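User: Please predict structures.

Assistant: First:
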Amino acid sequence: MSPTEPQHDSNFCFAVPSVLENDRVRVTPFIPPIHLSTYFAASERHPEVYKYLPWGPFSSQEDLGHLVDKKFSKDPGYILFAVFDKADPAPDESKSLGVIAGVIAYGGLPVLVEIGAVIVLPQVQRKDLASNAVGLLLGYALKLPTHPCFRGLRLAQRLGFQMEEILRWDRVLPAWKETDVGNGKGEREGDPRAGWLGRDTVMLSLCWDDWENGGRDKVALLMQRGNNSPGVYAKPGIRRA
C-alpha cells in the first residue's frame, strides 16, 4: 500500500481490498473523513444523479454523512466505494488518487452480492468510468476463491447480466421525487404517505458460470471500449450457485 492510499477499517461482512484499479479508474472504500466533503461538493450541483434512488438529493454535507453512516458504515451487509477518474489528476498532488467521479456499492449480503448506488457525476459520464468501476467490482466478487460475499438497465445487460424478475413495489420514493420516477401505478386511497411514489425494480444477475463462459471477456471488452447510457434503474445481483 502506498503512502497516499487511505486506511480503511471496514465493518463490511467480508474483506475488501483497499484499492481496485485499472488504467482508467481507481475504486477505494469510501472513508467519510477523507471523501465526504469532496464528494458532496462535487455532487450537490447535480441532484439529478439521485433521481431513481430512494434517498437524496442532500441539502447539506451533514445529511449525506448521516446516510453514509447509517446505510453503509454501520450495516455489515453494505459498503460504499469512492470512484476516481485516473485520467484527471487531483488538485492536491499529495493525494494522487485522481478526481472523485462518483460512488458505487456492494450490498445485499449474505444471499447475493448487489452492485448498486452507481452514481457517476455528469462531468465524467462519457468517459467509460461506470463500466470500468462495475467491471472491477465484478472481477473481485467473482474471483476464486469464491465467497458469498449501475448505471442502468442497458449497461447491466451489456455487461452480461440476465433478467431474473421485476420486483413490484420494491421501494417507496420520498414525496419530493419527480413524478416520472415512480412505477406509474398511482396511490392506494387512504395511504398515510400521500404523494410518496412506488418504484418497481428490475432484478438482473450474473452468475459464476456466466462469468467463466464468456462473461469475463465481455466485461473486459466493455471496460476498454466503454458505452455508458442512461436508463431505467437496475439492481444487478451476483448470485451464488
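Second:
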Amino acid sequence: MPSKLNVLNTRSYTDVKRLPSKYKKKATIISFLMIPLSGFVTDIYAPSMPTMATELHQSESSIQLTLTLFLLSYAIVQFFAGSIMDSYGRYRITILALCLFILSNIVIAVSTSIEPIYAMRVLQGVAIGCIGVSKRSFFVDVHDGEARKNYLSIMSIVWSIAPIIAPFIGGYLQHYFNWQASFYVLAGYATLLLILELFFSGETVREFRPFNRATIIKDYGIMLRTPMFVFGVICSGLCYGTIMVFNLSGAFIIEHGMGFPPLVAGYASLAMGIAWLSGGFIGKALINKPFIPKLRVASLLGIGVTLLMIFSANGLENIYTMLFFAFLVHVGVGFIFNNYFAYCIGRFPKMAGISGGFIGGSAFFLTSISSYAIVGAVHPSSQIGLGISYLSLGLLILIIVQFLIKPEKVISE
C-alpha cells in the first residue's frame, strides 16, 4: 500500500504542466540559455567592482564580499534544492526563482548602500542555485545514453560562455553607463528566459521520489561512499575557485594596480573566459581518452605554468605576461573541470536532482571559501601574488588527481 506521502505527491502533481514532447528541442535550448546565468551573475559586474567601491564608499574587500555571499548562498541552497525538486518537481520552482532573480537585480540597481546589495546577493544565490539544479537535472531527465553524455559535456562548455561575454559586456556597460547597468541587463535577460520558460517548457521529473529523511540520508550515503564522485566534487570546486581568484582580484590589479580603465579589465576577463572555454573544448575533444591520465597531465602542466608565472615576474612583469600565464592556467582548470564535472553530473541518473544539488552545493561552497580565503590571505596585487594564489589551489588539485583518485574506480560511468 502506498504511503500517505506518496499519495499526496501523486495527487499534487497530476495537474502539473508537463514538458510536451514537441517542445523537447526548444526546452533544451532554453535550458542551455539558463545554464550560464550563474556565470553572468558573478562576472558581468567584475569590471565595475572598483567603481562600486568608490561610489558606495566601501573597501575592496567589502565589494568582493558581494561575490562571496552570492557563491555561499548559491552553494548552500543546492544541498536542499535537489531533494525538494526530486520530490515536488522542478518547473514551478524554476518559475518562482526567475521572478525572485528579476526583482533582486532591480533592488540592487536602485540601492545606494551596501546592505541591501548584500541581502539581494544572498537572494540571488538562492534563486540561481535552484535554477542551476533544475537545468542541470533537465539533461538527465530528458535525454538518455550517448545523447545525455554529449549534452552534459556541451552543458559545461555552454556554462563557460558566461565568463567570456559577461565581463566584456560589463566593461562596456561600466564605460558608457555605470555599475547599475549590469544589473538592469541581468533583469532583462531573466525576464526573457521567464517568458520562454512559461511558453515552451514544463515539468521533466519522470518519477517523483518520496520526500523523507530516510530516503535523503540513503541517497547522500550512496554518493559519499563513491570516492571518485566525492573527489570530483572537491576538484571541481577548486578548479572554479581558481577562476574566482581572478574575478575577485583581477579588476583591482588592472585598474588600481596598473592604472588601466574598466574596459581593459573587461577585455582581460574576456580573455580568461576564452581560456576556460578553450579548456572545455579540449576536454570534449578528448572525451574518449583515458580519464585519469589526462587529468594528471593537465594538473602537472598547470603547476609548471604557475611556477613560471611566479619566477619570471622578477625580470619581466606587465599586463601582457600576467594575462598570458593566467590564460594558460585557466585553460588547464577548464579542461579538468569539464571532464570531472560532467562525470559527476551523470554519475547518478536515478537521483539527478539530489546529486546535482550535492555537486553544485559542495563544489561552489568550496569555490567561495577557497577563493575568498586565498585572496584574503595573499592579497594579490601583482603577477606574483596572482601566481601564488593559483599555486595554492593548483597544489590541492594536483594531490587529488595524482594521489587520491584510483583508475580502477572509473568503470563505464
